[in-house]
Design goal:
Length: 320
């Protein structure tokens, strides 16, 4: 799990609001004048007024603010059954996912955000691709942190749309309520990576040297985790997404290679590269093909695992 408050987040949120504001407003009017409208005229008036008054909070306010708007709608609109149908039309996610060159949509959100790797697993790329020769615009799935089936008003809310891989979104997260499973939110739980680390335990000598795969990988929350609640949230999120097992069972080869690389590149060697104008962060990035800085861990797969193993395995201990 990696936090995704990046330098681009705030500007992407502003673009999200600007891009959707007029589209939502026109969908509100279109629905009102359509034969498909479900709410009574009085209820629709209240619905329309509340949406227009709170559109910024719904689209780019923090999640708790958007949830409050949903509660408010359910209090003031009497026909809550039909409210869901009209909200689903106005904040329709399938329309947002369909690519229309001239209108802001999911592709633009993913592009402006530029979250390169799934924040839940830090394994799979979630990049966007515009392939002009094939007229294709491919962008990652967005997990609705609060599922759109239960919270349709949040279907297009910026902080409720987590760019994520298919495995995490479809096969693990699905439509569950995150509060029932005590899950971390990559947007609102900041600096997650500071509060846990992967640890490597070899069970034989070959595995210690990066030549065998008889080892175990654990994830430990750090004792400096600010609160017991955060520790519990980290533990339950890792268990929910099966991260430890996935890493340990499916990526033994990668872990072995990492150990070999670390053993071959001592701290002294990396420091000596400074003489050639190569900083520690640059040397680390070249050798381990990812970033060392916490705020850039979201850019490459396995960056947190690599950093923790790099820190844990001190190559000096392997020198004769
Ligand atoms: Zn994932």
């Amino acid at each position: 799990m990696i936090s995704i408050q990046t330098e681009r987040t705030k500007s992407a949120a502003k673009k999200h609001f600007k891009g959707l504001k007029d589209q939502i407003t026109s969908r509100l009017i279109k629905r009102k004048n359509s034969a498909d409208v479900c709410l009574s005229a009085v209820d629709y008036l209240i619905f329309e007024e509340l949406i227009n008054m709170n559109l910024e909070r719904i689209l780019i306010g923090d999640i708790s603010s958007a949830l409050t708007c949903w509660d408010t709608l359910n209090i003031f609109v009497t026909d809550t059954g039909n409210l869901i149908k009209d909200v689903e039309y106005v904040f329709d996610y399938s329309w947002f996912r369909g690519y229309k060159k001239t209108l802001y949509n999911g592709f633009d959100l993913a592009y402006y955000l530029s979250i390169d790797v799934c924040p839940y697993c830090n394994r799979n790329y979630t990049t966007s691709h515009r392939i002009n020769s094939k007229n294709k615009n491919v962008f990652p799935e967005f997990d609705h942190f609060y599922p759109k089936t239960d919270f349709p008003l949040l279907a297009l809310s910026f902080y409720n749309l987590i760019p994520s891989c298919n495995i995490c979104n479809t096969h693990f997260k699905g439509s569950i309520n995150p509060d029932d499973n005590n899950l971390l939110n990559p947007y609102t739980d900041i600096n997650i990576a500071k509060h846990y680390k992967f640890t490597f335990t070899p069970n034989d000598y070959d595995s210690l040297l990066g030549k065998g795969d008889n080892f175990s990988l654990d994830m430990n929350t750090l004792i400096n985790s600010p609160t017991a609640q955060l520790k519990e949230k980290i533990d339950s999120s890792f268990a929910f997404f099966g991260i430890k097992e996935t890493y340990e069972l499916n990526h033994k080869g990668l872990i072995k290679d990492l150990l070999n690389k670390r053993i071959a590149n001592s701290d002294g060697y990396i420091q000596s590269l400074a003489a050639y104008g190569i900083s520690f962060n640059e040397a680390y990035r070249i050798l381990f093909e990812t970033y060392f800085e916490d705020e850039k861990l979201y850019k490459r797969p396995f960056s947190k695992l690599k950093k923790d193993l790099f820190n844990e395995v001190k190559s000096s201990r392997f020198k004769p």
